[in-house]
Specification:
The chain is of the alpha+beta class. The protein has five helices and 17 strands.
Length: 275
């Protein structure tokens, strides 16, 4: 993660709003639209690529969906938390007036969150994908998968287990953490790779804990041929399956997500949500 000056953010009056459909999110969105109009902004629930800001209303899932829906655009984004976790969603719905005043007066900074970029190879095609949280390779139907893991073409290990996850620093607070993976501070330029139930027996010696890699490396996951048509790739929780799958290369993208931050409360978030 890196920072850019708030003076670099082009300001205009158009603001995208992407909301969950539950009652609390809809009520907050209605209130937000009214307050933004009172401050002479132009809020829209129809995605406008020329907007100065995108606001997501919901939980962390809403933020992740919004990032994917906007195709990882450079438009700054901020979240209003009406969900349960709210690690990405910083703004309290009860403090909309404070949020708008701080935004109008440039009382914030912009965190640049790294994105995972994936190249997915089959016998016939190459597919591309991006993720702000994590990418996971599994076998279908909850079966064990056997794969070779390479780092910059150097063989790391032959893995056997339920699957393998690669996460961004911000993504380590999601699925990765539920697997017992390590948290990585957002300012650390690194990817975390965490196994899903690695097998350790007389026949298999699979990794059991998270490995943290410097951000310039490329991680390649190459399953055995028998999984060519029974694979499952999860990209920020969305499931994909590929015919004649060969391998997936994962690295950091050159793009970044520009997330508005009004309070530097990372450690408070960790304490209140995870400890």
């Amino acid at each position: 993660m890196s920072y850019i000056s708030r003076t670099e953010v082009t300001m205009n009056k158009i603001i995208n709003i992407i909301s969950n459909s539950n009652f609390e999110s809809r009520r907050t969105t209605k209130n937000l639209i009214q307050k933004l109009k009172e401050h002479h902004f132009n809020p829209t629930t129809t995605l406008n690529p020329k907007a100065a800001l995108t606001i997501t209303v919901g939980g962390d899932g809403a933020f992740i969906k919004a990032v994917n829906r906007t195709k990882f655009a450079a438009t700054p984004i901020v979240g209003i938390n009406t969900g349960h976790l709210g690690f990405y969603q910083e703004i309290n719905p009860e403090k909309l007036d404070d949020f708008i005043e701080d935004y109008k007066n440039n009382r914030y900074h912009v965190e640049q969150l790294p994105i995972l970029s994936a190249e997915i190879y089959t016998n016939q095609k190459k597919f591309y994908a991006q993720a702000i949280n994590e990418i996971v390779l599994k076998a279908q139907n909850s079966k064990v998968i056997h794969m070779n893991i390479f780092v910059d073409r150097n063989h790391l290990e032959k893995f056997s287990g339920d699957g393998m996850l690669v996460a961004t620093p911000s993504g380590t607070s999601g699925y990765n953490l539920s697997l017992g993976g390590s948290l990585v501070h957002p300012e650390v330029n690194a990817m975390a790779m965490t196994p899903l139930a690695g097998i350790s027996s007389s026949s298999y010696r699979s990794m059991k804990s998270t490995i943290v890699f410097p951000g310039h490396h490329v991680i390649s996951l190459v399953p055995e041929r028998r999984y060519a048509n029974s694979n499952l790739v999860l990209i920020d929780g969305r499931e994909h399956s590929y015919s004649q799958f060969k391998r997936i290369n994962i690295k950091f993208s050159d793009k970044r997500i520009n997330k508005l931050v009004f309070e530097n409360n990372y450690w408070e978030n960790i304490k209140s949500k995870f400890l």
